[in-house]
Design a protein that fits this description.
Length: 447
C-alpha cells in the first residue's frame, strides 16, 4: 500500500474521538485509494473491523430501512454477515460506498450518540448525491468529520518510487532558503516530474507503472478509468427512487467533460460554451459543470475582478477555467503519442495547458481554491493565491520567459497592492525583483 498524507488526518480524527464522537466520512472520486487506506488504517488501529460495501452487498441495505436503533442495526448486520465480531469500544464499522445507502448515512447520528462503535464511511459522488432525496432520512449534521481525498500528489508519487525523504527535505530547504538546487538533482527531478505528468496520481496506474514502466499500459488503464467515470455519470439514469440525472443532463455532462482538452488548448483558456456547441449558453451547462466538480473530477478556476482578499467576494462567476484533478487522466484524453513526447521532453501544442493543469492540480491537492486574473487589456496572471498567508501572483511558463504581466502588476504596487510573485518554469531556484522562480516540480510545496 502506498503512503498517503490523509493517513495523518485519520490518526488525528481517532485521537479526537474522546472530545466528541464523530463518524469519519472520506469523500472523493472513484479509484483514488479510499477503500485501501481505510482498510489499512482500521487493521492497524482496531481489534475488530467490520467491512460493509453497499455497492456490492445489496441485501444489507434493508437493515437500515426501519427505525435506526443501534442495537437493532447491530443485530441486522451480524445476521447478514456471518463470522464477524462487533465488540463495543473495540470495533470500527467501515461503510464503503455509503452513497448507495442513504439511510446508512443517516444512521451515523444514532451510532455516534450511542458511542460504543467507531464508523468510517467512504463515498465517491457524495458531493452530488449524498443521500436519497426521496427516501433518505437526512444527513446527520454535526456528527461527521469529513475529509476530502484526492489522487496522489507529486510528493506521494516520489514516496511510492522510493525516493529518499532526505532528498525531498533537501528540496524543501532549498525552497525555504532560496538556494539553488544541485544541478544533477534538479535534472533528475524534472525527469520524475515528467513521469508524474503522464502517470498521474491514481494508485492503480502508479502501481502499474512502477511494476512495468509500460506507458502504453498506463494510458490504457487511465482510459479504462475514464470510461468508468462516464458510466458513473449516468449510473442512476431513470432510477425511480433516486432523483439524480436525466438523459438530457447526462449528455451535457459528457459534452463538458469531453470538451476539456480543446478548452485548455486555446491561448485564452477561459471556458467557452461555443467549444461545446456553436450557440451553447451558460444556463444549459451550469449543472453539468457543477456535477463534474462535485464528483472530484474537475476543478473550477475563477477570474478575479480585483486582486484583493477575500477572493471569493471578488470572483467573476461567469468567467472561469476548468482543469482536471488528475493530469495523468487529462494526458490520456489527448493523442496516443502524447505521453511518449512528454517523456522525451516535448509537450507539443498542449504544453501550456499541461503545465497549467499540473499546477492547478497541485494547488487543489493543497486545498487551495483556484483563481486567476485576466483583463481585456491583455493583462493575465495564471493563478492568484495565498502563500504563507500573503497574496501571491503565480505564473506558469512553458519556457523560462519574461512574464510581462507579472512584472507590470508588481511595478504598479500603488494600484494592485501586490508585491509577491512566484514563477514556475523549467529552471532552478532564483529570486529577483520580488519574483521567486522555482522549478515546476516544487509546486507541491506552495502552501
Amino acid at each position: 500500500m502506498f503512503e498517503r498524507k490523509i493517513y495523518k488526518e485519520m490518526i488525528s480524527w481517532k485521537e479526537n474521538q474522546n472530545i466528541k464522537k464523530k463518524a469519519l466520512v472520506i469523500k472523493g472520486a472513484r479509484q483514488i485509494g479510499k477503500t485501501t487506506i481505510v482498510k489499512e488504517f482500521a487493521r492497524k488501529n482496531y481489534e475488530n473491523v467490520v467491512y460493509i460495501n453497499f455497492m456490492q452487498n445489496e441485501s444489507i441495505k434493508s437493515v437500515f430501512n426501519n427505525d435506526l436503533i443501534v442495537d437493532v442495526l447491530i443485530r441486522g448486520i451480524t445476521a447478514n454477515i456471518p463470522n464477524i465480531k462487533i465488540v463495543p469500544y473495540k470495533t470500527v464499522l467501515i461503510f464503503d460506498e455509503i452513497q448507495e445507502c442513504s439511510n446508512a448515512r443517516s444512521s451515523l447520528k444514532p451510532f455516534m450518540e450511542d458511542g460504543r462503535f467507531d464508523i468510517i464511511a467512504t463515498g465517491s459522488l457524495l458531493g452530488i448525491k449524498g443521500y436519497n432525496k426521496k427516501k433518505g432520512k437526512g444527513v446527520p449534521t454535526g456528527f461527521e468529520r469529513t475529509l476530502y481525498m484526492k489522487p496522489m500528489d507529486f510528493e506521494e508519487y516520489l514516496w511510492a518510487k522510493g525516493i529518499s525523504k532526505d532528498i525531498i527535505e533537501y528540496l524543501k530547504k532549498c525552497y525555504t532558503n532560496i538556494e539553488k538546487i544541485d544541478d544533477s538533482i534538479n535534472t533528475k527531478f524534472f525527469d520524475y516530474f515528467n513521469e508524474y505528468i503522464c502517470v498521474g496520481g491514481m494508485p492503480e496506474v502508479v502501481d502499474l507503472f512502477l511494476k512495468t514502466s509500460d506507458i502504453n499500459l498506463v494510458r490504457d488503464t487511465q482510459r479504462d478509468i475514464i470510461e468508468e467515470y462516464k458510466d458513473d455519470f449516468g449510473k442512476h439514469l431513470n432510477d425511480e427512487e433516486i432523483e439524480y440525472v436525466d438523459s438530457i443532463e447526462l449528455n451535457k455532462i459528457l459534452e463538458v467533460f469531453e470538451s476539456i482538452p480543446s478548452q485548455l488548448s486555446k491561448e485564452n483558456k477561459k471556458f467557452q460554451y461555443s467549444k461545446i456547441k456553436v450557440k451553447g449558453r451558460a444556463s444549459e451547462y451550469e449543472k453539468a459543470i457543477e456535477w463534474l466538480k462535485d464528483a472530484g473530477i474537475i476543478s473550477k478556476c475563477y477570474n478575479l475582478s480585483l486582486i484583493e482578499s477575500p477572493f471569493d467576494e471578488n470572483k467573476v462567476d461567469n468567467q472561469f477555467k476548468l482543469y482536471m484533478q488528475d493530469t495523468g487522466l487529462f494526458i490520456s484524453m489527448l493523442d496516443d503519442d502524447t505521453s511518449a513526447n512528454i517523456l522525451a521532453g516535448d509537450l507539443g501544442i498542449y504544453k501550456g495547458a499541461i503545465y497549467e493543469n499540473i499546477i492547478a492540480e497541485a494547488f487543489t491537492k493543497n486545498d487551495k481554491k483556484l483563481y486567476y486574473y485576466s483583463k481585456s487589456s491583455g493583462l493575465e496572471i495564471d493563478f492568484v493565491t495565498k502563500i504563507n498567508g500573503e497574496i501571491t501572483l503565480v505564473e506558469v511558463k512553458a519556457t523560462n520567459g519574461n512574464a510581462k504581466s507579472l512584472k507590470y502588476l508588481l511595478e504598479h504596487y500603488e494600484h494592485y497592492k501586490v508585491n509577491r510573485a512566484v514563477k514556475l518554469a523549467k529552471t532552478n531556484i532564483g529570486y529577483a525583483n520580488n519574483i521567486l522562480t522555482i522549478p515546476y516540480y516544487l509546486a507541491f510545496i506552495l502552501v
